[in-house]
Amino acid sequence: MSTIRIDVVSAEKSIYSGEAEFVVLPGTMGELGIYPRHAPLITQIKSGTVRIKVPGKEEEEMVWVQGGILEVLPHHINVLSDTAIRAADLDEAKVLEAKKQAEEAVRARTEKQEIATAEAELAAISAQLQAIQKLRKTRR
Q1: What is the CATH number of domain 4-87?
Q2: What is the C-alpha end-to-end distance of the chain, expressed in Å?
Q3: Residue partners of 115: CB distance under 8 A and separation at least 6
């Protein structure tokens, strides 16, 4: 089977770089599936899990991203995100505590802008929690 090169990069460092049989990403209008020789594409992605099917491995590699930009070329995928974390490195206890704090922040805010900011943070934290749950489900 042919492969496509993928690079997932955060503001701080390269998170994942390698070959993939296919990649699934959280697009703003729904999930995007990318296979080798895909038509060129540039689009926004939302917070969620990037799933990478690595050749020769049964288990997918998963990376959580807090939104960003996806660039697809026929033989290369670039995922650029301010924050990206390998799903295996996510700490469930910290994420649950952050979710609790974000929910309290949403309830405590009164200004529309403050509410919108707190809700966006809560959505990103919820996406991290979903990534942890997906990872736990695949390892059973």
Answers
A1: 2.60.15.10
A2: 27
A3: 106, 109
Tokens for 96, please give them: 């649950």
pTM check: above 0.85 = no
pLDDT by position in tens, the chain (length 140): 799 999 999 988 999 999 999 999 999 899 999 999 999 999 999 988 899 999 999 989 999 898 899 999 999 999 999 889 887 776 777 777 877 887 887 788 778 887 788 787 777 777 777 777 776 665 55
The Cα 38–Cα 50 span in angstroms is 17
Q: Which pair of tokens denotes residue 66?
A: 């807090």
Q: Which residues have a Cβ under 8 Å from the Cβ of 11 and sit 6 or more positions away? A: 81, 82, 83
